[in-house]
Amino acid sequence: MPDSMSVRLHLYRIRVIEVMIDLPERLEVVVRDLRSVVRCPWCSFKTSKVHETRRVKVKDLARGTQKVTLIWLRRRFECTNCGERHTETHPAFDKRMTARLTRAIVRDARHLSITEIGRRYVLSWHTVMAVVKQWSALLAERRAKRPCRVLLVDETSLRRRHRYVTVISNGETGEVIGIVRHRDFRALSGFLTAQGRRWCAKVEVVVTDGSPSYRGAIERHLGHASHVVDRFHVARWFASGLIEVRRRVQRTGEPGESPVFSPTIFRTRYLQLARADELDSDRFARLAHALMQDPELWHAWRLLQQLYEIYDAPDEAEAAQRVEAFVYAWEAAPIPEFRSVLKALAEWLPEILAFHRCGRITNGRLEGTNNKLGVLKRIAYGFVSADNFAARALLWCPPVAS
Ligand SMILES: [Zn+2]
User: Fold this and answer.
1) By C-alpha distance, which of 224, 202, 192 is closest to 146?
2) How many angstroms separate the alpha carbon of residue 139 from the centre of ligand 1?
3) What is the pTM assigned to this prediction?
4) Which of 57, 116, 297, 316 is buried most deeply by CB count within 10 Å?
5) Ligand 1 midpoint to CA 42 (Å)
6) Are 26 and 69 in contact (CB under 8 A)?
7) How far is the CA of 86 from the centre of ligand 1 (A)?
8) 3-state secondary structure 74-99
9) What spacing in Å lies between the alpha carbon of 46 and ligand 1's midpoint?
10) What is the mean pLDDT of each run of 10 residues along the chain (402 residues)?
């Protein structure tokens, strides 16, 4: 069978013995290790005495749509010196798969869905998921030991408002360190307990989304670190005041009628949330035109800009002064919708100002990390199992090269 013998596997130290099946959809090849002499792992004497040979099926990379299975003649050697037996291993094989197939799956798991990977390598969903889980368990173990200076704590849901998980990542490298079920005190506290005191002691800054349930766990385990509320979340709190005002004033019809919106105000709703210095003159003119429609909206916009300026302050003292200035400006013409903003400011002031105290270190780095977490949150939807999601997430968020 000269044709069959031309199958080349390009596998190190592997010899093709026989081609069993060569169909368009399936290739099965019998292979064995090139070596005939091995070292005994017990006494390190050389031996070539084969006690028995088993046929082990090993999956390999598919060739296009042709599924490839290797039948590995795996030998059990008997030592002629000490009499002990051992089963051979081979660097190209990783359990029931070739190492190169495992590597390809792990590489693709950073950007493809499990189903897509399965289709690409002609494997079942469960086979792919098992490889991903195995690898992420190794990764998790390695990453958990590495010290982390800036810890990022975030929450995400696998279903809208259901099945929450807490995502803990390294704020400087972007790598996910762990994912735990739920988003409460116990979830974070349990994770930090498992990490151990020595690891916790090395955390200098912890960044959260400002959810009160994490606060207790941070105070207990990371009391020495600076707790910062992620500025993106704070910006969202700030913007909520203006959004509420806009929703009230854009309505032009009488209550009870079907709502009629002022198009000028409604269409500029995103411009209203932008920072004034980020708008070009065209956009600014459109925004100014809309703001002139309603004095309250104009005032609300001024208040929001004033809030944004807190983050531009050169230091903590100046930031604190700007917070105070905002409170005075609000009191001069109190808009009810900004009451919740004031409440959030009062409750989280130390964590908001901590941004400046920590030398604004969280800024640039976190943007990249936040984007990745955003993508992660989108892929989280549709996951049924928190464990499967956790396995995916670890591969999805590897460290960013710095
Ligand atoms: Zn031996």
Assistant:
1) 202
2) 35
3) 0.74
4) 297
5) 5
6) yes
7) 9
8) EEEEECCCCCCEEECCCCCEECCEEH
9) 8
10) 62 92 93 94 95 95 90 96 94 91 92 88 91 90 89 83 84 86 92 95 92 91 93 90 92 70 88 92 94 93 94 92 94 92 93 85 58 71 78 77 46
